[in-house]
Each structure stands twice: as C-alpha cells, then as structure tokens.
Design a protein that fits this description.
single chain, 395 residues, Trna Endonuclease, Chain: A, domain 1, 4-stranded mixed β-sheet, 4-stranded antiparallel β-sheet, 34% helix, elongated, binds zinc ion, CoiA_C, Competence-induced_CoiA
Length: 395
C-alpha cells in the first residue's frame, strides 16, 4: 500500500522523495494502517517503489489484497497521471458502504469512478461481486488488467483475462490493458473469437500514459470484418478437424447428436458456423455448435418458424448447458442474445437460406440435402463462399 497514517494524517509515499522517506524511517516516526490501525513498516528498496506493509498478517482488507510490485507500481503511475487531469483523486480510499478499497477513486464530471488494477488471477466471481457493489453505490467501476499478454495475432487470452472484456458501441467487445514497464495502455477493439481462447481484433490502439484520460477520447478503427472473413473458413475447418481428431463420436455429446440426427459432421452446411458480429463474442461454444442447434431444433424441422421459436430453442440449449457463454463479469449483457439471433437470421436471409413470409414467420428456402461425396460438398462451398464474401463486404 502507498498510504498510511502518520501523526493522525494521511501520508503517501509517492508524494515524497526517497531521501525524505529514508530520513523519516531513521527518525522515530510511526505509521499505522488507516483501515485496521495496526502498525506498518515503511519499505524502501531498490526494486519495489517505497510502500507500506503490515507487520503481521492480521485480518485487514488492504493487507488481504496481496499487492505485487507491478500492482503498486501501476497504482503509483496512474495516481500521478490522473492527478494531472482530475482534481479529486483518492488513493486507497475506504468506501464504508461497500467495505472496499479501490486502488483509486476519482470524480469525473460529477460521477465517481473506482479504478481497480488487477495483476494477479482471482476468481471472476469476486470481480463480479465487487463490480455489482460499485454499481449499487452509483460508482462506475473501471477494471484495468496488467497481467502480461502474449503478443501475436490472434490474441490468446485465458478465461480470467477474458473476464476483463467490455462492450461499447464504438469498440464492440474490447480489452484495455496496461503495461507499467512501458507506461502504456493497449486497447484491443472488436474482439471476435476464432476459438475458445483466441481472438481477432481490428487494430490495437496504443495509449501512452501521459495521454490517458477518462473517458477515453480515441477514435475506433474500422471493424475487423475483412480480416476475420479471410481466415474464417480456416478456423471453422480447424475446429472441425480437432473435434474429430481428439474426441470420439460416441463419447462427445455434440458429435453423437450430429450423427444421431443423420447428419455428416464434416459435410454440415456452411451456413452453420457463420461469423455473427459482434455479439457472437459472448458465446464460448463454437459457432458451429450453437448454429447447429438452431438449425436442428427449429429450422430443419419446422416448415414455418419464427424468431421467437429460435430464441426459445437457444435459451433451452443454454439452460441445458449444451451452449456455453463467456463469463464477462464487468459487462452488463441485457438483450445481447436477442441481438445475436436477429443478426444471425438476417445473415441467413441475405444468403437466401431462409425467407421472410407474410407476418412474422420464416421458411427455409434452400432445402438442404446432405452431400454424399466430397465433390458434392466442394460444389456447395464453391456456391456458398462468393455469396458470403459479397454480403459481408456490403455491411
Ligand atoms: Zn491494515
């Protein structure tokens, strides 16, 4: 921690030089924890920035946070920067109503913003709980991930790191990351999954610390439709091949359902497994899975169907666990599944797979007969891909 009580007043290490701190340490000054009143030691080393530590592991909220050097360093950097921009910046401030201590609490245009820097992996349920607490107190929570991320495209994220993904109109699903060693933020906009843990994004945006402000004032790049599209079929095929190679048709519930329905897994129609941007980022199951369920539960079997039927089928599958969603604890979801279904159906409509009838219903226009040979399936791809390319480009 960076703050302590000295002579009944708040004392912050980062507002003093190392020499001043060394002099204080040599003197007979004592420091106590503002939260639990137990004595603190002032630590001045060469690696970590000067900070306070509890002398014993008592039950104290702030001691329980187990701050890493990167966490303390990030907190000090953000405090410095935000103090330049905002008048009201509180460090390690105790919010009584919530019994929580955000790293920073600032007032932005009359609204309180709690900044939580997260370096170590903690349960996502804890993040969700703290987020909901802040919202209840009308405080906007801003979570910043500082765990190192691997470089390269697609971006590989653990399920913990995926918990920091948020949604906005401009950036769609995005991740904000801070690297204290480079004093720089990176924003990955338009995140679209190509597998459980890999994501495409449009173009990363670097924000140097000295430009960082709240809210962010940066322009979003073009969405990444084209890059995803170019590689989409590759990832679709890769997922299918892995499924066949690593799971047995008898033991894998998805494969056994496909075969049980008389469908040939490798020859499923190509409109099963379409990229449905942006809301499909919410779904952890592969797009082949959830779109197959929609097709199998409704489209293939009903001569006439409605959006409501498809939505209900999707929700049933979700309830049974055959479709899994991603856990985005800081992102309120709301009507996202409805939007996803709407977007998928309008894509199917544009591809002439389904057609709107008078009223609110649809019919399947392109009757599907399972290809018997690889050549027949190749013919289907030759017909399908130019159409898809054309349609996604127009959007
Ligand atoms: Zn304490």
């Amino acid at each position: 921690m960076l703050t302590a009580l000295m002579d009944h007043r708040h004392f912050t290490t980062i507002l003093h030089t190392k020499e001043e701190l060394l002099a204080l340490k040599k003197g007979s000054k004592s420091f106590t924890c503002p939260h639990c009143s137990s004595p603190l030691i002032l630590k001045i080393g060469n690696i970590k920035i000067p900070h306070f530590a509890h002398t014993s592991k008592l039950s104290c909220l702030i001691a329980a946070k187990k701050e890493t050097p990167a966490h303390i360093w990030s907190k000090a950097l953000l405090y410095d920067r935000l103090s330049e921009v905002f008048r009201d910046v509180k460090l390690e401030y105790y919010i009584k109503e919530l019994q929580q201590i955000p790293d920073l609490l600032i007032t932005v245009q009359g609204k309180r913003v709690a900044i939580e820097i997260q370096c170590s992996t903690i349960p996502l349920s804890e993040i969700k709980e703290r987020t909901e607490g802040y919202r209840r107190e009308n405080i906007h929570p801003l979570w910043i991930l500082t765990q190192p991320l691997p470089s390269g495209i697609p971006l590989k994220l653990t399920s913990f790191q995926q918990g920091f993904i948020r949604f906005s109109e401009e950036f769609h699903f995005f991740l904000l990351h801070f690297d204290p060693s480079k004093k720089s933020f990176t924003l990955f906009p338009h995140l679209t999954p190509v597998s459980t843990n890999s994501f495409y994004f449009s173009k990363e945006i670097k924000i140097p610390l000295e430009k960082f402000t709240i809210p962010l004032t940066i322009l979003p790049p073009d969405p990444a439709e084209s890059r995803i599209l170019k590689n989409w079929n590759h990832y679709r095929g890769k997922w299918m091949n892995n499924k066949i190679r690593f799971s047995s048709a008898r033991r894998d519930p998805f494969l056994s359902e496909v075969y049980g329905e008389g469908d040939i897994f490798l020859y499923l129609p190509l409109y099963i497994g379409l990229p449905v941007l942006p809301q499909m980022t919410l779904i952890k199951s592969n797009s082949i899975q959830w779109q197959y369920f929609i097709w199998n539960d409704v489209i293939k079997k009903s001569p006439f169907f409605t959006k409501e039927m498809i939505y209900a089928a999707f929700m049933r599958r979700l309830g049974k666990g055959s479709i899994e969603t991603r856990n985005f604890p800081i992102n309120p979801t709301g009507s996202s599944i409805k939007i996803l279904i709407d977007d998928y159906m309008s894509l199917l409509e544009k591809l002439d797979i389904i057609q709107k009838r008078k009223g609110r219903g649809y019919i399947l226009t392109a009757k599907w007969t399972c290809p018997k040979t690889f050549n027949e399936f190749q013919q289907h791809s030759r017909d399908f891909f130019p159409k898809l390319k054309h349609i996604l480009k127009k959007d």
